[in-house]
User: Fold this.
Amino acid sequence: MISGLFKFRGKTSPAIEATVGVIAAAVLLLVWEGAARGGLVSPQFLPAPSRVFSALWNMLLNQSLLYHVGVSFARVWGAFLIAAAMAIPIGIMMSSYRIVGASLEPVIDFIRYLPVPALVPLSIIWFGVGETTKIFLLWLGTFFQLVLFVADDMRRVPNEYVEVARTLGASSRNVMTDVALRSMAPSLVDNLRITLGWCWTYLIIAEIVAADSGIGYLIWTARRFIKTPEVIAGVVVIGLIGLVTDQLLRLLHRSMFRYL
Assistant:
């Protein structure tokens, strides 16, 4: 099974892959620790992992880290669920009816290339500095990417499936629910997983807008006082949350679509 690691598209067990991942992470941390302690990099710019983990423990005990994690988690998932609830039906309509796609796709293509940080001042003017602005910025960074993914997933449903269903007497509603949605479901779940990761990347931008809670707030406050270990610790927390969430969604995908 180990030989599969060195073959093109070789197969191996999840346990072996997990072991390799842990070893690679450990090697990276050891190199980082050695470089920091050996003076190859300034600790002000890149502190050793041991200092970062010490800062993380201090944040957990004295800075209510779990509370801030919960706040950020609620913001990200709230914005993501709103984006998904809007993007899935709109994306399906865009690829199913040409008039909808022709009307919406140019606007969506234009907006998705706009940098989210540049829209922070406008969002404050529109919504103030409360929770609505933070949710809006997270939604903005997710919705316009996800809706095009959904539209592409629907376009990839083979026409043969639709034609066979109609030949067998299926109505338009049956074709949509029993054929098209079932066919696109695996790639749709994958794209939801990917865009959820993007939503987390906009967290810092959302939580620097007059925030007094959240991981982004902790990172931004630590940056102000040049507390580099705490800045990196906050980033590590976001990365760990993303890693765990991504792996759980991968497991969900495997359990839902065992036939792939």
Remarks:
- The domain at 60-256 is CATH 1.10.3720.10 (MetI-like fold).
